[in-house]
Amino acid sequence: MNIDPSIFKAYDIRGIYPTNLNEEIAYRIGRAYSKIIKKENIGQTDKIVVANDMRLSTPNLKKSLIKGLLDSGVDILDIGLATTPTFYFAVAYFGFKGGIQVSASHNPKEYNGFKIVRAKSVPFSSETGINHIRDLVIKNVFLAVAKKGKLTKKNDVLGKLIEIQSKGINLKSINKFKIAVDAANAMGAIDMNALFKILPCKLIKLNFKLDGSFPVHQPDPLAEENLKYLQEKVLKHHADFGISIDGDGDRYFLIDEKGEIIRQEILRGIMAQIAIKENPKATVCYDIRPGRITKDMIDEVGGKAVVTRVGHSLIKEKMLETKAVFGGESSGHYFYKFPFGTFEAPIVLVLKFLVYLSKQNKPLSEVVKTYKKYFHSGEINSEVRDKDTKIKEIARKYSNAEISYLDGITIIYPDFWFNVRPSNTENLLRLNLEAVSQKLMEKKRDEVLKFIRSENE
C-alpha cells in the first residue's frame, strides 16, 4: 500500500482517517515501535502502556495498533480512556519502557494519530524516533516472534495521578471559587470531573459529554473563536475564572472574571515564579515565541530562564538536559519535573494556581493587570515561495539587531522584537511580534508582514 510520509510529524503521527491513516498503518506502527523498544531494552522487560481518546475512529485504530504490538512480543498495559497527561503519568510513574496514546489532540474529527514515548515518558520526535518509525512502516519488513505479547488492563490510573500530584499542596487553603470549564466534548472532562471531587470549588460544566464529532466547536483553545463559549459562560454565571482545554487534555487556557483571555506568557510567568520559590534559583524552560514578561518574572525571583525551540517534545528534552523544574509553551502546555519523569501536568498547574489565586484576595483580572507590560501581535501565518530565502532576507533587512537562529529567526531591538519560524510541513512563515506599546506593535507588525509577503504582491 502507498504510505503518505507527511503523517509522520515533528512531534507525533497524525493524519486523516481512513484516507492516509488507517488500520493497516496502525498495525505497522505497532510493529515498528516494538522493534525500536525491544532493541533499546535488550535483556529487559519491554512492557508498555497504551491509552486512547474518544475520537470516532479510535477503537479501530487502537485495536490494530495493539495487534501489531502483541504480534511483536510486547506486553501491554491498556489504561483505556485517558488524557495524554494521564498516559504520560502511567508510563513514568509505574516504570514502563514506553507507550503509545491514540489521539489527534486538537485536530478536527476527521483526524487521528499517535503520541509516542520511551521510558519516563521521554517523547519521540522526528529526530529521536518518529522518522525511524516512518522508515520501518514504509519498508514493512517485520520478523515473526516466537512468543506473542500479553495484554492486561488497568482503569484507576487517574485516581493515582491525583493522589500523587496533589501531595504537598494545601487544598484547605483554596477558596470556594466558582470556575467554568469548557472541555470541548473531549478528554479534559474526565480529568476535571475527578479533580473537582477534592476541591471546595463549584464546577460549571460546558461541553462535558464525550463526543468525537465535536458538535459545538473544535477542541483547540489556541483559536480564539473557540473561547467565546467559555467567555459567555463565565460572564453569565459570574464565575471567578474559566478554563478551556484542548482535545487530549494537555493544553489549558484561562479566562478571567471579565471574560478576557489570560495571555500564556503571563500565566507561564506566574507558574514559573511559584516553581522557583519552591526551588530557589531553579531553571525554567519556555519556547522562543515572544513573551518577554516570562523572563522578567523569572529574573525577578532569581530563577534561570532557558529559551527553547517551539514544540512540546523539544521543551521536555531541554528540561531534561538543564534539569529544569518547570516549563511552559505558548500554546498552553505546562510541564513539571517529578522524581519519575518530566511531562505535562495540568492537574498540578490548576491546583497550584488555585492556591496562588486564593492568597491574592483580588479578582484574577487585577492580578494579571500588573503584568500587561508588552503588546503582542499573536501568531500570523504568511505563505511564501521559499522559506529559507525569506529568512535570509529578514536577517539582511534587520542586520543591525540582535539576531538568534535557535528556531527560525529572532530579531531583537530595545523596544520591539519578533520571531519568524518556518512551518514543518507547508510553505508558511509564522510571525510573532511584541513591542513596548500597542502603537509600535501595530506599526512593526505591519512592516514585517509587508516585507515577508512582498514577493507575493
Polypeptide structure, described:
The protein is of the alpha/beta class and 457 residues long. It folds into 4 domains: 5-157, Alpha-D-Glucose-1,6-Bisphosphate, subunit A, domain 3 (Alpha-D-Glucose-1,6-Bisphosphate, Chain A, domain 3, 3-Layer(aba) Sandwich), CATH 3.40.120.10; 177-256, Alpha-D-Glucose-1,6-Bisphosphate, Chain A, domain 3 (3-Layer(aba) Sandwich), CATH 3.40.120; 264-365, Alpha-D-Glucose-1,6-Bisphosphate, subunit A, domain 3 (Alpha-D-Glucose-1,6-Bisphosphate, Chain A, domain 3, 3-Layer(aba) Sandwich), CATH 3.40.120; 375-456, Alpha-D-phosphohexomutase, C-terminal domain (TATA-Binding Protein). It is 35% helix and 22% strand. A 6-stranded mixed beta sheet has the order 1-5-4-2-3-6, with helices on both faces. α1 crosses α2 and α8 (264-278) runs parallel beside α9 (292-300). The longest helix has 18 residues, at 23-40. It is globular.
Question: What's this entry about, in short?
Answer:
The strands form four sheets. The chain has a six-stranded mixed sheet, with helices on both faces.
Largest sheet: 6 strands, mixed
The helix fraction, in percent, is: 25-40%
Alpha carbon gyration radius: 22 Å
Total discrete domains? 4
- Kindly report the name of the CATH homologous superfamily of the largest domain: Alpha-D-Glucose-1,6-Bisphosphate, subunit A, domain 3
DSSP helical segment count: 14
Unreliable segments (pLDDT under 50, ≥5 consecutive)?
none
Q: And the CATH topology of the largest domain? A: Alpha-D-Glucose-1,6-Bisphosphate, Chain A, domain 3
Q: How many strand elements?
A: 21
State the end-to-end distance.
Answer: 41 Å
CATH top level assignment of the largest domain? Alpha Beta
Residue-averaged pLDDT: 96
In terms of DSSP E residues, the strand content is 15-25%
Structural class, please? alpha/beta
